[in-house]
Sequence to fold (176 residues):
Amino acid sequence: MKIALLLLSSLLLLCSCSAPEVSHYAEVKPSLDLVRYFVGTTDAWGMFQKRSGEVTKRFHVTIAGRQEQNKLILDERFEYDDGSKQQRIWTLIQSVDGIWHGTAADVIGEATGQVAGNALHWQYTLLLPVDGSNYQMQFDDWMFLLDDQSMMNRASMQKLGVELGQVTLFFKKRVP
Fold:
């Protein structure tokens, strides 16, 4: 009986920690249009924090976005505080059901995401280089449009279901 009660309590605790559905934000303005927001140049500033809250890496990203037929191409150029650089080129396609699908050279399989209102919920597995080794890390991204030029992003980074840290970014669209 004690084991059953412990299992039930654990299950209730896990369920209470689940994130909201992206549809929760359907009526929140301004509405996020990924193509409209990312076509052109966008700057982003971010940091990685361990579970303890310690900031271990800061970075700046310049994103050049363009639309090619039904694809949104995002060319991301990262500059880290240790002087290292990285590039990731995303190819995003929205399916008829509204789901966004994305690929990049260091993404395992396909990223998927959904937009509702001002929010994008985006999930993928990234091959992350750390100290000469590559690790498959699961990302659970939430992006929130604040106004026409500003967006915030919070991503949980997990391995085997255990959160190792979080990535936080602030995006600012360059206005021509």
About this structure: The beta strands are 40-50, 55-68, 71-80, 85-94, 100-103, 107-116, 119-130, 133-145, 150-159, 162-173. Confidence is low (pLDDT under 50) at residues 4-16. The chain has one domain: 28-173.
